[in-house]
Amino acid sequence: MLKDFFIPEDWENIQLVSNYHTHNYLCGHAGGTVSDYAEEAVENGMRIIGISDHCLPPLETHDAYFSAYNIDKHYLPQFDEAKQLYGDKIKILRGVEIEYFGGHSDYYKLLTDRLDYMVLGQHLFMWDGQMYNSFIDGTDDRSVAAYFDSVCEAIDSGLYAMIAHPDLIFYRLNKISPYMVGAMEQMVKLATERKIPLELNANGMRYHRNKYPTQQLVDLCQKHNARVVVSSDAHSPDSLCDKYMRALYAYAKSIGLNVVDEII
Ligand SMILES: [Zn+2]
Ligand SMILES: [Zn+2]
Question: What is the rounded CA–CA span in Å between residue 201 and residue 189?
Fold first, then answer.
């Protein structure tokens, strides 16, 4: 929960430029096609729309998401269609949101060969050879530090254009310890050094009861002048430019964060 955040009465007048974190009907828990998002973005006067649906990471075997092996079949053709319909009005970028697990460079190469960018969404992370879930396993200093180590590894890989909800690991915590803030600060410093934007995620307000973005993330981005990207993380086209997204964008600018509109 951000202490000075509020939704202004005239939120509809806050103009957005771009968005790089949006989902798609393919993941099974979102709605809309690439064209639907492009249409919504054009109607709202945006210049760039990036679609970054969930992609199955290496090691994971469930088949709810598309993977690097079948991305050509259902996901990428949608971009051709959208570009035909809206390509003269808006820049449409092909992305995915995906975890980073080290030692699988061949798998990630299949993706980077086909896409314009990748978003790190470290919902799952490896620690001591085991897989953990950021939504449930951030219970103590050690697990939180392991999460931030995994995000730092992802930044080091050079594969990612932005880091989604970097503070997701605090999801279940009521109290964030100074040690945890220290672990996050190492990550913020590395991202700043590498010029990789850290995300303030509007879906944490819209859908996750204000669990993210956290004040601690905002404070560290301010302290280090980190690049910040504000994303809708829209799971349906009508939330692409909703009140949470517009208000969070205005908030980030109003407190002097280093907000970037172009990340590619
Ligand atoms: Zn999702
Ligand atoms: Zn995510």
Answer: 19
